[in-house]
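debug: dumping io for the single-chain case to check the tokenizer round-trip. Nothing else runs in this session.
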Amino acid sequence: MKKNKNPIRVKEGSGNVFADLGFPNPEREQLKARLTLQIYRLLKDRGLTQAKAGAILGIRQPHVSGLMRGQSGNFSVERLMDFLTALGQNVEITVRPASKERGGVSLVLR
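debug: decoded output
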């Protein structure tokens, strides 16, 4: 077996790829990604066309196409939550004391 002169360096992730990559507001980006994934799953499970999904969500088909490709950048967290309610989902926000000095954001999907 040939030895590699340049070994691959591996660093354990923090659990938030957006933080690991240095994105500003990584918690918000992770939340948007998880909300977008849930919207994607709902649309796929229902077998909706992008045009029909757009009619339900109140957006144009090209924006649905972006969502289906994981592009949530154009939408706020609030707007993504509005999409979930339009798809018949309840969205709950819970605020509780943090165990650290600085709090965090998490999303529980059921």
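debug: round-trip ok. The chain is about 45% helix and 0% strand.
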